[in-house]
């Protein structure tokens, strides 16, 4: 029995999306997003972090993350898809703006429209010393 359905996001799609993050490929990242997409960053002033709505703002939000962590990598990823929802778990490794190493677990919860991601809602752990 095949788990892949035409015009639907698959586990393989999410794995390619995660790879695009580690490659810092902004154009490739945006190729996965729907026209009316939204990105909810794990940090920000609001209850749901910082929210970016629409392709232009989402691209800007993704760029902010990639620029803040130029050596950032999202590794040890795993994914699942259940209809029009899905999730990815990953380990984020980077050098923080203060020069200290960052290594934390996190996840993204997705909503899909056909074969595109319409919502990427990010969460990550915060380590204490």
Estimate percent helicity: 10-25%
Structural class: alpha+beta
Cross-sheet strand order for the largest sheet? 2-1-6-5-4-3
The coarse silhouette is globular
> How many E-type strands?
6
Q: What would the average pLDDT be, to the nearest integer?
A: 93
Termini, distance in Å?
48 Å
- Which range does the strand content fall in? over 45%
CATH fold-level label: Nuclear Transport Factor 2, Chain: A
How many DSSP helices?
Answer: 3
The Rg value, from CA coordinates, equals: 14 Å
In CATH, what is the class? Alpha Beta
The biggest beta sheet is recorded as:
6 strands, mixed
What does this structure look like?
This protein has 129 residues and is α+β, with helices and mostly antiparallel strands. The protein has a single domain, classed as Nuclear Transport Factor 2, Chain: A (Roll). It has helices at residues 11-22, 26-31, 55-68; strands spanning 33-46, 49-53, 73-82, 85-95, 101-113, 116-124. The protein has a six-stranded mixed β-sheet. Strand 1 and strand 2 form a beta hairpin. The longest helix is centred in the middle third of the chain and has 14 residues, at 55-68. The N and C termini lie far apart (48 Å). The mean pLDDT is 93.
């Amino acid at each position: 029995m095949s788990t892949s359905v035409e015009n639907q996001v698959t586990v393989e799609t999410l794995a390619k999306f995660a790879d695009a993050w580690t490659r810092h490929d902004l154009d490739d990242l945006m190729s996965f997003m729907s026209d009316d997409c939204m990105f909810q960053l794990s940090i920000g002033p609001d209850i749901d972090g910082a929210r970016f709505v629409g392709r232009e703002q989402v691209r800007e939000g993704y760029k902010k993350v990639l620029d803040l962590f130029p050596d950032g990598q999202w590794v040890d990823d795993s994914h699942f898809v259940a209809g029009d929802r899905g999730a990815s778990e990953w380990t984020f490794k980077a050098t923080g703006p203060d020069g200290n190493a960052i290594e934390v677990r996190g996840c993204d919860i997705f909503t899909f429209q056909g074969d595109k991601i319409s919502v990427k809602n990010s969460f990550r752990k915060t380590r204490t010393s």
